[in-house]
Amino acid sequence: MRVSLSCGRLFSKCLSFQPRAVVSACRETLLKAHAVSYSTQPGSKDVSLSFASYESTQAEDQRSPIIILHGLFGSKNNWKSLSKAMVNATKRKVFVLDARNHGESPHTDEMDYILMANDVDLFIKEHSLDKVAIIGHSMGGRTAMTFALTRPSMVERLVVVDVSPVTMPSIVVHDNVLVNHINSMDTVLPQLSPDMSSPAARKEADRILANDIPEVAVRQFLLANLQKGERLYEWQFNLKALKRNLPNIIQMPDLKGLTYDGDTLFICGGDSPYVSKRDHDGIKEKFPNANIVYIKGGGHWVHADKPAEFLNFIKEFMGDGTS
């Protein structure tokens, strides 16, 4: 397996998932790194996204590559282990992108699903790709749906992970959990001394976040984005822009009359509130060939909670290149 990636941190649950077959069968080579860009760009301009790519060292597969889009507060590094496993399982090349205002992609003032779909379009053109298979989780899932609905001819097949085009759960809309997360993270940086070591800063940040965020896994996920800048500690994502544009992230764009008729798979967490049975009719209206599955015991990060089961669905849906 050849790997092209920019450096970053892993989401702890995905870090623990290291399939033996993948590790033993593949070799990993750093081909190129992309410079980190934190400059604020005009929001209406398409953004060149930072990415990691993975491919087999065996005969090149001519089928459409897979593009993976992460969720809010995430990055391409959350998907590193699963991306390697997907290459092994499907024999397709895999690209994992950092969304604007996340990871090592540029920071912009504006952010919504139309803009993020435009960024994906630019990435595909920059890399001279034809059709692609897209996998998107949560925010990335809504970007993937927006892209498929507005550019159906460019999408060979679509996987949406634990998010609905119809509704968002009350914990997001009414309980303001995302706003609370952002406000909590906003209090962290002023309390971190630049003289702190990275482990000490992370420990102190975790203590501060614990006042508002009791879930250890959520705090670990967010803290994967804490890093030492040139002088001070900083969040890798653009917290100010995320807070300002949160309504655009919670709300799916109005794409009335548009459908994507290609093969579509919704993979949902059995314990997650994000895709309810009441959403199924609305999903089928936009994606008439959608199959909706639930993984028992999986939460909103179902791919991290149940990686083996998730990968089995991906392999079955994408094929393994043998036929």
From TrEMBL:
Annotated Pfam families: Abhydrolase_1
Entry keyword ATP-binding: no
Domain AB hydrolase-1 positions: 65-307
Source species, domain of life: Eukaryota
Keywords for this protein: Hydrolase
Top-tier EC class: hydrolase
Reactions catalysed: a 1,3-diacyl-sn-glycerol + H2O = a 1-acyl-sn-glycerol + a fatty acid + H(+); 1-octadecanoyl-2-(4Z,7Z,10Z,13Z,16Z,19Z-docosahexaenoyl)-sn-glycerol + H2O = 2-(4Z,7Z,10Z,13Z,16Z,19Z-docosahexaenoyl)-glycerol + octadecanoate + H(+); a 1,2-diacyl-sn-glycerol + H2O = a 2-acylglycerol + a fatty acid + H(+); 1-octadecanoyl-2-(9Z-octadecenoyl)-sn-glycerol + H2O = 2-(9Z-octadecenoyl)-glycerol + octadecanoate + H(+)
EC number: 3.1.1.116
GO CC, one annotated term: mitochondrion
InterPro entries: AB_hydrolase_1, AB_hydrolase_fold
GO molecular function: carboxylic ester hydrolase activity
Family: Belongs to the AB hydrolase superfamily.
Stated name of the protein: sn-1-specific diacylglycerol lipase ABHD11
